[in-house]
Amino acid sequence: MYSQDSISGRRRGRPEPTAETLSGLACLVCTTDYRNATDTEAVVVSHRDDQQLLACH
Fold first, then answer.
1. Strand, coil or helix: what is 19?
2. Of the four listed, 9, 15, 22, 38, which is most buried by Cβ atoms within 10 Å?
3. What angle do CA 39, 18, 57 make, to 5 degrees?
4. Res 10: pLDDT
5. What is the CA radius of gyration of the chain?
6. Are the C-beta atoms of 28 and 46 separated by less than 8 Å?
7. φ, ψ at 49 (rounded to 5°)
């Protein structure tokens, strides 16, 4: 199992999602901007503050 320090350290190491990611305009994983990549299929991978976070399928 992972220690609590290890888990917390990993969380701190991640950047906060951008405004585009939080509004569903960019991929959470690779940051593809869906406004420019209209043929990209996205799926909901998480929720944050009652908003869906999307990632490329």
1. helix
2. 22
3. 30
4. 55
5. 13
6. yes
7. 50, 50
Tell me what the pLDDT averaged over the chain comes to. Answer: 79
* Tokens 């990632």 -> residue: 55
Query: How many domains is the chain partitioned into structurally?
Result: 1
Which residue ranges of the chain lie beneath pLDDT 70?
A: 1-2, 4-14
Residue with tokens 């043929």: 39
Rounded alpha-carbon distances, angstroms, from residue 48 to 6, 24, 51: 22, 11, 5
Q: Is residue 33 part of a domain?
A: yes
Please give the Cα distance from 57 to 34 (Å, whole number). 12
| Residue 42, domain extent | 17-56
